[in-house]
Amino acid sequence: MCWTHHASKNSEVRTVIADRLKHWIFGEKGILSQWSGSFFGFNNAAQPTEPGELPSSRLGLRYTWEMAKANGIIHGLIYYLDNIEDHPGLREKVDLGIRYLSHPLKARMSGVASDPDEGYGGFAVQSTGFVGLSLAQGIQSNSVFDL
Description:
- By secondary structure, this protein is mainly α.
- It has seven helices and no strands.
- It has a domain at 57-145.
- The protein has helices at residues 2-7, 11-26, 31-34, 63-83, 88-102, 104-109, 124-139.
């Protein structure tokens, strides 16, 4: 969505994407409503399991995948802040996330450059890629879209 928003010349497409991102971040069940203070606090389910749902479906089938993809959420949040609408409260949380991902031990514990045999290394490649996107966006706005 971020790339499409960045690349599109169609104002309607850009508006739809901006609205969806805003809802995803700030909506009643948006990511901020699930973010309990620490960088990875939003990995836990904010709502109970729905009838007929498997108990793990709200937590993710594999916690290591949840950790890996959480590393990429920061990229989307920074993109929103830099290109759609700045929000001081969100920026403060994003800064915490960037500091977390910039710390070598904490990043490794979220799968970055981990050995796949380590408990948190099951998705080391994906985690490392997501962190790369997030840190690049944090260092230079939209640098991941430059050719």
